């Protein structure tokens, strides 16, 4: 690898971690928030989704409650919308759907409820043959992939003041984004955190 490319990769790595830390750590300021729906089933968010980085092993599933974010590859940050490819649901197959419901937690943060139809979370089959009706989800905050989801609930402890786009997409066992009519199967909501 050339020195210039290596330097750019290191800069991208540092920037990716800075973004991750800002999202995950800058979060501890207050919890007064309102969840505002902005997307529906199959709706594509107006903000392009970016993988923070997917240069990791897919040999083992991640813990359901663990955070799974990585820095960007290189100067091509933002070009990884569907790094693992896409899987269009063929005609005649049941169409998976996803709806995101945000419940403010009684103490702090939010409980994200991921309601699905024609889809089953299957962490035990991650990295195996893809199916149109099973797999896992991806959680994005403000267009940045935060973690994989292996179940119907996720606790989000806190967010910095401001308006945040929360998106959940459905993905097959082989990590492909599930698609219907050329659109990702995903749901988006907003959380507004007051200063």
Protein traits:
3-stranded mixed β-sheet; elongated; mainly beta; 1 helix; transmembrane helix; 6-stranded mixed β-sheet; 12 strands; 195 residues; DUF4399 domain-containing protein
Summarize the entry for a quick read.
With 195 residues, this protein is mostly beta strands. It has 1 helix and 12 strands; from the N terminus they run H-E-E-E-E-E-E-E-E-E-E-E-E.
Draw up the topology in text:
Blueprint: H1 3-25, E1 33-37, E2 86-88, E3 97-104, E4 110-117, E5 120-121, E6 134-141, E7 144-149, E8 153-156, E9 162-172, E10 177-180, E11 183-184, E12 186-193
User: What's the number of helices?
Assistant: 1
| Tally of separate domains | 1
- What Rg, in angstroms, do the CA atoms define? 17 Å
- The helix-and-strand class reads mainly beta
Low-confidence stretches: 8-82
Shape verdict: elongated
For the sheet with most strands, the description reads: 6 strands, mixed
How much helical structure, as a percent, in the residues?
10-25%
DSSP strand tally = 12
Proportion of residues in β-strands: 35-45%
CA-to-CA gap between the ends?
45 Å
- Round the mean pLDDT to the nearest integer and report it: 72
Order of helices and strands: HEEEEEEEEEEEE
């Amino acid at each position: 690898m050339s020195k210039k490319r290596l330097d750019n990769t290191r800069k991208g790595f540092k920037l990716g971690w800075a973004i991750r830390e800002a999202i995950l750590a800058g979060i501890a300021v207050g919890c007064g928030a309102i969840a505002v729906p902005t997307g529906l089933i199959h709706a594509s968010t107006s903000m392009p989704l970016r993988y923070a980085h997917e240069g990791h092993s897919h040999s083992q599933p991640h813990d359901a409650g663990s955070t799974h974010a990585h820095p960007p590859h290189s100067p091509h940050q933002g070009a990884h919308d569907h790094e693992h490819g896409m899987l269009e649901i063929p005609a005649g197959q049941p169409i998976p759907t996803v709806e995101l419901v945000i419940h403010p937690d009684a103490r702090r943060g939010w409980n994200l409820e991921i309601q699905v139809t024609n889809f089953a979370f299957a962490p035990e089959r991650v990295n195996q043959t893809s199916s149109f009706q099973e797999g896992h989800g991806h959680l994005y905050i403000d267009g940045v992939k935060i973690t994989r989801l292996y179940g119907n609930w996720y606790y989000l402890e806190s967010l910095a003041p401001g308006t945040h786009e929360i998106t959940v997409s459905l993905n097959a066992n082989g990590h492909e984004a599930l698609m219907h009519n050329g659109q990702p199967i995903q749901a988006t909501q907003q959380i507004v955190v007051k200063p």
